[in-house]
Amino acid sequence: MQLTIFKDYHALSQQAADEIIALVKHKPDAVLCLASGSTPLLTCRLLTEKALAQHIDFSGCIFIGLDEWVGIPPENEGSCAYFFHNQVFKDLNFSSSRIHLFNALSENPEQECEAMNKVIFENGGIDLMLVGVGMNGHIGFNEPGVSFDLYAHVAELDETTTSIGQKYFKEATELKQGITLGLKHLLESKKVLMLANGSKKAAIIQKALEGEITNRLPASIIRRHPNSMVMIDEEAAVMLER
Ligand code: F6R
Q: Which residues are catalytic?
């Protein structure tokens, strides 16, 4: 694991966008997996700007959505799919047949998980995964207590996740379960970028990076990944001791 502390959110987002661009230039058929949410928002915007300016072609890439709220349709602006459509696919030329998002309305979510596992496996695994960190230390919807050995699965959401998750929705929304890639996918990804910004993330970042590596704090798993980059801003780094 390599830790970099950036001056601010903009600087870390620049670097994250540059990492993605560099990969796609080098490997035009890269398998990319992105989280949605507040943290990667600026990365996605900068990625779009840079990609358009540099004429980067995403049509050969595979896109994997990290997770989704079960029962929330893609047209709901709080859904992860809505985020991806508006922040990524609108301006970058991903080919629709190469975009793989969980169908959160599926009557058979287990089958959704198996299908996603198969796509990832058949395409040689994930080249780059970009994740945020929840206030409870989750990654994707890998909630505290999750096994490090799981691939895609349906998760019962932690209370912190269901209450903080309201920030993505226009009106109060019942959130109970999530469908998510597993931490085994993260461990097997060729590269992982874990981003965090702002003082509200400082305490959880300190625990994830300096506390015990434990499934009670899923983000701590990042230290087991040999090619992971933890990219945080100065505000998120204030509680680090070392
Ligand atoms: C969203 C996701 C979540 C978020 C995490 C941080 O797709 O996977 O794990 O990354 O909850 O959310 P933000 O970035 O909104 O603080």
A: 67, 136, 138, 143
Tokens of 131: 């994740």
Encode pLDDT of 183-206 as tens digits: 999 999 999 999 999 999 999 999
Q: Is any atom of ligand 1 closer than 6 Å to the C-beta of 134?
A: yes
Residues 6+ apart with CB under 8 A from 87: 36, 41, 44, 45, 48
Please tell me the distance between residue 210's alpha carbon and the centre of ligand 1 in angstroms.
21
Ligand 1, atom 4, lies closest to the CA of 132
Of the candidates 211, 216, 146, 217, which has an alpha carbon nearest to the alpha carbon of residue 183? 146
Token duo for residue 31: 């398998």
Give me ligand 1 centre to Cα 27, in Å. Answer: 27
Read off the tokens for 18: 């540059």
Give residues with Cβ within 8 angstroms of 216, minimum separation 6. 137, 144, 145
